[in-house]
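Subject: Protein record for review, amino acid sequence with backbone structure tokens
Category: Structural biology, sequence-to-fold work with a learned token vocabulary.
Format: Residues in single-letter code; tokens as whole numbers, each standing for a residue.
Body of memo: The sequence and its backbone structure tokens, given next.
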Amino acid sequence: MTTGWEAPRAGYLFTLAVASGEEDDLWTAITSADGGHDLLIALGAQARLMARTATTATGKPFVVPASVWECIACPDVRSFAVAAYAGEEPGELSVSCTRCLREAAEVLARLQLAAMDAARVPLAWLAGVCGQLTSAGGSPVTPLPDPGAAVAP
């Protein structure tokens, strides 16, 4: 269920699952209630935030090639995902095609991961947001350092 306040956390969890190639089971669990509409809005906002972070960190705009959006087969879902990423009101989405919604979710998650890479934000940050501080399935996620730990000179 991804309605209301649960959607942002589900978005980060889904992005972490995409990074580790383990999104199949999670997709079913997080979209069972609303079909993923709230999740797409959350993923769009998260990808947009990370793109802005990348722009600030590098001094260059984070550019999304138009071809990225063409991976989403359904034009209505594509428009919804683009609007969610742009921070515009995406409107209502009457499409319930799970395949198209998942395509959009994966595109938005991969945009967030690309922007994180451009901004040099470690995947461990995302794991920390998710509350998962251990590596899953051989992913490059590592625990966040303890802020109170002594730093070696």
